[in-house]
Design brief:
12 helices, TIM Barrel, homodimer, eight-stranded parallel sheet, Lyase, Ornithine Decarboxylase, Chain A, domain 1, 2 domains, alpha/beta
Amino acid sequence: MEEVQLQERYADPVPEALCIAPAAKVGDVSDAIDTPSLVLDLDAFEDNLRTMQVLAERHGVALRPHAKAHRCPEIALRQVALGAVGICCQKVTEAVPFVQAGLRDIHISNEIVGEPKLRLLAQLARKAHITVCADHAVALRALSAAMAGHGASVGVMVDVDVGQKRCGVQTPGEAVELAKLARALPGISFAGIQAYHGGLQHKRSLDQRQKACDKAARLVRRYVDALEQAGIACPVVTGGGTGTAVFDVASQLYTEIQSGTYAFMDTDYGGIDWGEALAFRHSLFLLGTVMSTPAADRAIMDFGLKSTSAESGAPRPVGWPGLRCVAVHDEHSILQADDAKNMPALGDKIRLIPGHCDPTFNLHDSVVALRGDRVEAIWAISARGLSR
Amino acid sequence: MEEVQLQERYADPVPEALCIAPAAKVGDVSDAIDTPSLVLDLDAFEDNLRTMQVLAERHGVALRPHAKAHRCPEIALRQVALGAVGICCQKVTEAVPFVQAGLRDIHISNEIVGEPKLRLLAQLARKAHITVCADHAVALRALSAAMAGHGASVGVMVDVDVGQKRCGVQTPGEAVELAKLARALPGISFAGIQAYHGGLQHKRSLDQRQKACDKAARLVRRYVDALEQAGIACPVVTGGGTGTAVFDVASQLYTEIQSGTYAFMDTDYGGIDWGEALAFRHSLFLLGTVMSTPAADRAIMDFGLKSTSAESGAPRPVGWPGLRCVAVHDEHSILQADDAKNMPALGDKIRLIPGHCDPTFNLHDSVVALRGDRVEAIWAISARGLSR
């Protein structure tokens, strides 16, 4: 196909810079924020950080928050400032902006396969203390060769499957073999095991979660025992999430927990039973504007799947009783009012709790941090899109 | 919360630039592309562009492809080079990189509400021919005031609801009133009507789509007639999508069609019945790597919801009979093999057809354009994330 010669075909008729203004500036009231925007209630966010930090410290367990939830270095720095030992990332590229921001202790809670990823990992490992997961001897040998070849070293957490049926070795015997291999090969060292079970996090009842955690813990115990019997100390057992943190810290097995969503919450985690165990507040909201009111009980919002994930359910409007989000399209969402008397007007701004915070953060380049109703800061979501 | 003084807390131990290499370089074979990456088969893509262009021209209807599907100026330039009259965008910010790339005829197929958006719209309208939608007199007056105030002018397409129950006026009388207002107010002019029905696009059988299109067309006819009876010429009727294009071009009502997905396809559109009417090829794929093989019939891929949308269904592996994507998590996807003999190995790269192309493009900063098995170009998805 012919290459289009733009300069010849179109001259810019107005030599004026065309630039997109930020959604808000510091000091603005929230109603002045352009939409759709992701906003963070700092008071609720800081409460959440403290609540989880206190929980972990009370049990002598390290908190290593998962930065995949937010991909925002400013947030990670605040977690570490309150006592977190470091962070988790899920991808090698994702870790880059965090290392650039000064984070120096990062667990990449995932298997790393492929030469470009290993090359970047070696670069990161020359600047920061890095651990990664492994569940296969072939991958572990490639990891060792790459680290040794690039003059770097990383710690290896053997990933063990405690029931999620995702990654991870399936038997304690395999874990022992991988740990031995990690101890024998150059450029890597055995750092512990990762035992994460995402499926448990969202079980609705507290009792169900407790029972499922007990079952997973018995599996973790088998892995730790097998390593001990093989004469291999297991300094770290890492895992746990927001939904199971209260059980994981009390398990006397996990030495660190990887919760991420606790700082923000979403309708997914908001919908599970928390008992009186922990109380996290909704701190993260999508701010949208009513762009059309075609019927007395229907408002069309200016956001869709490109601003909020919907695979875990639609976002939930806050402060509008009887108003429900009934559809999320590519670029619009539809709010339906039970009672036309409680309908927002054209141009009204509405806050909604996202269905699932991790993929929602990943749709935005920045988050507007609010103190009360004022913009205190705008933080870059620097690792947005870094999924390699 | 205390401000973290990074410079004091952490000195960079290795003063070496940390940078993320592109996923591929021109000339690479596809197997060398780092993953997850979005890849475009140029031969199939160009076939699709020609197929739709020929269809539109055969019926004397203009093709104005929807750039919300791809958000990539390089793609829009190729559509216009083949004969498209311009493009559609869905958001004001989204239009910016397209205008910067030289596109000079853009229909923003959406209602625009809010001062920051109107300010940017006026900037765009000084550089390009811009039309926008309106379905409310209050919004139309604000649009007029902003355009006139900033010395700009835009065309207005009155948005009419032809059954989708989203935006749009509900009666021909309302459309006539808005058209009159658009003709009377400064800074704006009446440009036509938009009659888009997203819900029809995905009806599975060709016959169902035909019947639904006929019904919608009868509604469109009522709007055009009402305008004519009021002495208002309606120069443009814009609407239509990939699923209904074959009927819309033959309707003798639509003067331009807004299809977007036709250039790429996805499992959503791939799953509807096309009869012998049109044949679009799958040109868009997600490339992923097998990062774990924990069971004989299960492979874990290195992509999840941050690389592919899943609300319209999981992506579908290509070239691996009996291999199905059974789960898409935040950062992983799980492939299940019907037969363990047809399982990929650790490190294998697999192409998958995304479930829904629009939100999938919006997750990536670039798309790797392949000619056969070689990388011909890497195109920036410059409007990725521009949803205000």
